[in-house]
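ok so for the tutorial part 2 we go from a plain amino acid sequence to predicted structure tokens. step 1 is just haveing the sequence, like this:
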Amino acid sequence: QVQLKESGGGSVQAGGSLKLACALSGDTYNPNFVCMGWFRQAPGKEREVVASLKRRGGRTSTTYPDSVKGRFTVSTDTPWNTLYLQMNNLKPEDSAMYYCAADPRATCGTFDHWGQGTQVTVSS
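step 2 — the prediction. this is what the tokens look like for a chain of 124 residues:
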């Protein structure tokens, strides 16, 4: 059973930075064939992806929605035990519960495993 645990959330003022971490434990993924994602959900809003990192066929690719592009960066450590999300120039609209998730089929389509989330609050 794969387990994901997020940490690093907190309260910051607009323009500040936070770095979230997602620790992986339990059954391990193939580090060269997996898609990992960061998602967020604010009260009353749908869950949205804010970053994804896919490793497949020897290649690594990352994607971001326009709302966070240039401000958020997803990365992993080596060996792959932790997924990170560096968030800079935070805005009040970035306030949400942030989750990490994993898709062992490396499609970035359906994510099988989820963490419990970490809260990010950005004040103006």
